[in-house]
Amino acid sequence: MADRIIDHYEHHAAAWDADRRAADWNDKPWHDRFIKALPAAADVLDLGCGSGVPVARHMAEHGLRVTGVDASPTFIALCRERLPEHEFVVGDMRSLRLARRFDGVLAWDSFFHLTPDDQRGMFDVFARHAGPSAVLMFNSGPHHGESIGEYRGDPLYHASLEPDEYMALLDGIGFDVIAHVVEDWVAAGGRTVWLAQRRLHRTA
């Protein structure tokens, strides 16, 4: 099921974009918190950027410079059309190696579609692309396990590690947790959220 994620989103790209734009943005408070933690005009790497709405557009409207990565060519085409002054790349975030570092790294509603082993590998990706004092935000499940959801009649894979393992992985790449809320129904639509910042003395 995990191997179908890229094809799933490309197949449903138009429907997903329409549904996302029509839905209430119930996780906006966390994105506002992420933006406030960044310096003005920060460079942000948005991993699994989708169609760019509402998240990338919101960051752009706050003066951030967005580099978005998504494996769906349809999503990236929509992003380029909507936010032509920003950079969008078709690519698999698991193997990403951009020759740049960023003030912020975001993996929202994307990271949790990876297998547990691929999630562990993502912390090297985060470290390669995070600049000094970079802010990182992603969401996960509340505990270790795999689950199969559904979208438009097709199965949709999700996975998570244990919270203690996320803590250890973040510490291993030099990040301190700023905030962590499990199943935040008030500000994230029930998502489990991690917000962390790189310690100044640590480099990848």
TrEMBL record:
The keyword Methyltransferase applies. This is Class I SAM-dependent methyltransferase. PANTHER family: TRANS-ACONITATE 2-METHYLTRANSFERASE (PTHR43861:SF1), TRANS-ACONITATE 2-METHYLTRANSFERASE-RELATED (PTHR43861). InterPro entries: Methyltransf_25 (IPR041698), SAM-dependent_MTases_sf (IPR029063). It comes from the Bacteria. Keywords: Methyltransferase, Transferase. Residues 44-130 form the Methyltransferase domain. Its EC number is 2.1.1.-. It comes from Bradyrhizobium septentrionale. CDD domains: AdoMet_MTases. One of its GO terms (biological process) is methylation. GO terms for molecular function: methyltransferase activity. It holds the Pfam family Methyltransf_25. It is an enzyme of class 2 (transferase).
